[in-house]
Design brief:
By secondary structure, this protein is of the alpha/beta class. The protein has 14 helices and 15 strands. The chain has two domains: about 1-45 and about 375-420, Urease, subunit C, domain 1; about 50-360, Metal-dependent hydrolases (TIM Barrel), CATH 3.20.20.140. It is globular. The two termini are about 40 Å apart. The chain binds zinc ion.
């Protein structure tokens, strides 16, 4: 695949008349100039975005939960209503719809934080049916999938799983490890493009005594994600039960490291920020979800300054738009600090692209970059839309929207956004559609 790009917007600069050659895996084999022999010629492109935190099935709640107020916990009860009914076919349909929407919006990779493992009674489906449904959806939409298979063993500090939560649990850390390793073999045979990662749902869902064992039973390079301090109640319950904040509990268990991604990290103490930075973790900020659920504003500036790596996630998928996430990330920092340019355009591009891709890859794997031997997926942008015309190309990150993505190249394969948007509508589960 040979792509000629009039203007390639990289985090640090904009390069003109670039000719990129990629192999079938989307790995750059040569970087030159001009357009001779190009299979595809585009005016403006940027490295594709990485969505580091998704729950695909939450897409089914979009536009249905805004009446009557409430808070995160009330929303969660509604979400559990959906989680309690999905079977593999329903999950595949919802995931295909939302993954197609993601690729249409310029995302080439997604980290699926997945805990709907078993049937509603808690019994195992044969053959990892729910996990394979996600892999099949990713293949149909053409997105790189990092499946973050999640351990979820209890309902909270000192409480058991009840009702719809029962299907999340493997029962013990050992049983989770056994299923995880079996899943890895299954995916290697059937879906070798899928990266299998892991997740601890939260300090609510795993006993403190199990945290270290959960991480230690995984290969050392596997991406490990964890929800962290999205809600103040989680912090209060954790301190009451253990005397430690959730971050301090994870630090004590040895869970924080460069392979770790902390999701949200909204309500932190100064010591928490320092611990996350010192451990060089990635942080998945999910600004559209955090705003939708009234979670609060995160600590993007302090985390960056402490040494953590910022990334973006769409989480509950009420919005699929990397530009919206990044604009809200910077907007939140401005509202909190009363200053502009807290995160520079270069830092926003990095958070949305290369740092996000690294959070979804095995530790030490080559991260996305315009260098021979590294993967480069592309988002093809319209710089002459009503939103973008006149903008400095490097500031498109603060001017464009998902509607300005014309197509996405994933692993060297180009797909038009218009086709993907049609797929997103067609794949949406019929039983959930209002007009069906
Ligand atoms: Zn989440």
């Amino acid at each position: 695949m040979r792509i000629a790009i009039g203007s390639l917007v990289l985090p640090e600069d904009v390069r003109r008349d670039v000719l990129v050659e990629m192999d079938d895996a989307g790995v750059v084999t040569a970087v030159g100039s001009g357009s001779a022999g190009a299979d595809l010629a585009v005016d403006v492109a940027a490295p594709a975005f990485a969505n580091t935190h998704s729950h695909a099935f939450h897409r089914l709640l979009r536009g249905r939960t805004n009446g009557g107020g409430g808070d995160f916990w009330r929303w969660r009860d509604v979400m559990y209503g959906v989680a309690g009914t999905l079977d593999p076919d329903g999950l595949r349909a919802a995931a295909t719809a939302v993954y197609a929407e993601m690729v249409a919006a310029g995302y080439s990779a997604v980290g699926e934080f997945h805990y709907l493992h078993h049937d509603p009674s808690g019994a195992a489906y044969p053959g990892h049916a729910m996990e394979l449904a996600l892999a099949e959806a990713a293949a149909e939409a053409g997105i790189r999938l990092t499946l973050l298979d999640t351990v979820y063993l209890r309902g909270g500090f000192g409480t058991d799983l009840v009702g719809p939560q029962v299907r999340f649990s493997d029962g013990t850390i050992e049983a989770w490890h056994a299923r995880w390793h079996g899943l890895r073999d299954t995916l290697a045979a059937a879906h070798p493009d899928v990266t299998l990662g892991a997740a601890l749902h939260s300090v609510r869902a795993v006993d403190p005594a199990d945290l270290a064992r959960a991480a230690a039973g995984l290969p050392a390079d596997v991406p490990l994600h964890v929800h962290l301090s999205e809600q103040t109640r989680e912090n209060e319950d954790c301190v009451a039960a253990t005397g430690l904040t959730p971050t301090a509990l994870l630090e004590r268990a040895g869970v924080l490291s460069p392979r770790t991604t902390a999701v949200h990290a909204t309500h932190l103490t100064d010591a928490d920020v320092a611990a996350l930075g010192t451990a060089r973790v990635s942080v998945s900020m999910c600004p559209t979800t955090e705003a939708d659920l009234g979670d609060g504003l995160g600590h993007s500036e302090a985390l960056r300054d402490a040494g953590a790596r910022l990334t973006i996630g769409s989480d509950q998928n009420v919005v699929i738009d990397p530009f919206d996430e990044l604009r809200r990330l910077e907007g939140g920092a401005r509202l909190a600090s009363h200053r502009r340019g807290v995160l520079s355009p270069a830092q926003l591009w990095r958070a949305g692209t290369v740092d996000g891709q690294a959070s979804l890859a095995p530790l030490g794997a080559p991260a996305q970059a315009l260098e021979v031997g590294r993967p480069l997926d592309l988002a093809i942008l319209d710089a002459r839309s009503p939103r973008t015309v006149g903008a400095d190309l490097h500031e498109l990150v603060l001017a464009a929207s998902a509607a300005d993505v014309l197509g996405t190249v994933v692993r060297g394969r180009h797909r038009a956004s218009s086709t993907l948007r049609d797929l997103a509508v067609a794949a949406y589960p019929r039983t959930e559609a209002r007009d069906a």
